[in-house]
From TrEMBL:
PANTHER family: ACETYLORNITHINE DEACETYLASE, PEPTIDASE M20 DIMERISATION DOMAIN-CONTAINING PROTEIN. Belongs to the peptidase M20A family. Its cofactor is Zn(2+). The keyword Metal-binding applies. This is M20/M25/M40 family metallo-hydrolase. GO terms for molecular function: hydrolase activity; metal ion binding. The keyword Metal-binding applies.
Length: 356
């Protein structure tokens, strides 16, 4: 399996073509083990769907072979002790290699499986996931429980924050720059708005996995000359809300604040992604936590992720969707690595969990 992982890391899959090459490599590997699978294509992106077993429930293993851009030397995997360095080693070719290996192991026992196990290998997670994971869900290839093999140190990320893009337009009154008291400065209004935003009730909401939502002032646009008081300032926020929070309430509170500064001010919601709200009483989470504790000889840890992954597409259909994968560090950074021992344990956990 580690050989398979090294081969995967060596494929420069930080482009569309590269990611498709990595996908074809996975398909060849499955062929070489006589594992029946489909290679599907959508908008130029390839993906794999394989399924085995029978029974009333379906578990999906989802892994992506595309990676964020890396230096050329990062596509040369290097092993030092328990660490395997390379772009995508942790995020998430280790997850993919372990899923392929676990699938191979249970493939020969597929007649005995009491549930269906589906393997999805996809190629556009790092650029949004819509074309492959999104597509698979759209054509009905989903399940009751989904494991995305993102690096989580063998902890179960059962929730992730939702996303709300909020666009705020603050209006002022133009005046000559030499007599600013005759106008109202829209940039200063935006500054005031931003400060007061942090005191709104929605910023204090928590649940067992999160202490508060994340708020990022992402864009600002205003002013084009020195000698004028700017009369309009547009700001945009990336808000990651806590599962259970309603985005409508956030917009309502922001609108009230903006209009208390100037009744003409406008707050508009942009893109939205629901939060992942899997809970610890989910039966699959419980069985997976049990197997994880057995294999790692440590109590299983459940937590909530701040960012979003391909889990979001599957969760839309009502499936329990979690991120769960091996240990590593510095993914998206120059020193990305994965711990080889955790990849072995991860494959063992998936195998045992499938055979439950
Ligand atoms: Zn990833």
């Amino acid at each position: 399996m580690i050989e398979l992982l090294k081969n995967l890391v060596a494929i420069k899959s930080d482009t569309e073509e590269g990611a498709n090459d990595a996908l074809r490599f996975c398909s060849k590997w499955l062929d070489s083990h006589e594992i029946t699978h489909e290679v599907l294509e959508n908008e130029g992106r390839l993906m794999i769907h394989a399924e085995i077993g029978q029974g009333p429930t379906t578990i999906v293993w989802n892994g992506h072979v595309d990676v964020v851009p890396g230096k050329i030397e990062q596509f040369n995997p290097i092993i030092e002790g328990d660490r395997l360095y390379g772009r995508g080693s942790a995020d998430m070719k280790a997850g993919v290699a372990a899923m392929m290996e676990a699938f191979r192991r249970i493939y020969s026992a597929r007649e005995q499986l009491k549930q269906r196990i589906v393997l999805h290998i996809v190629t556009d997670e790092e650029t949004g996931g819509r074309k492959t994971s999104g597509h698979l869900v759209e054509i009905g290839r989903t399940g009751d429980f989904v494991i995305c093999g993102e690096p989580t140190h063998l902890k179960l990320s059962v929730q992730s924050k939702g996303i709300l893009h909020a666009n705020v337009t603050l209006f002022g009154k133009a005046a000559h720059g030499s007599r600013p008291w005759e106008g109202t400065n829209a940039i200063e209004a935006a500054y005031k708005f931003n400060e007061q935003l942090k005191t709104l009730p929605f910023t204090k909401v928590s649940n067992p996995y999160y202490e508060y939502p994340s708020i990022n002032l992402a864009k600002i646009q205003a002013g084009d000359r020195y000698n004028m008081v700017p009369d309009q300032c547009d700001v945009a926020y990336d808000i990651r809300f806590v599962p259970g929070q309603k985005w409508e309430e956030i917009i309502e509170q922001m609108t009230e604040l903006a209009q208390s500064i100037n009744p003409a001010n406008i707050v508009k919601p942009g893109g939205k992604t629901p939060a992942i709200t899997t809970t610890e009483d989910n039966a699959f989470v419980q069985s997976l936590a049990g197997v994880t504790a057995e294999v790692t000889q440590k109590d299983a840890v459940l937590f909530g992720q701040h960012g979003a992954a391909d889990t979001r597409y599957y969760a839309k259909t009502g499936a329990g969707a979690i991120e769960f994968g091996p240990s590593g560090d510095d993914w998206h950074g120059p020193g990305e690595y994965v711990l080889i021992s955790s990849v072995e344990q991860y494959a063992d956990i998936l195998t045992k969990h499938a055979l439950v």
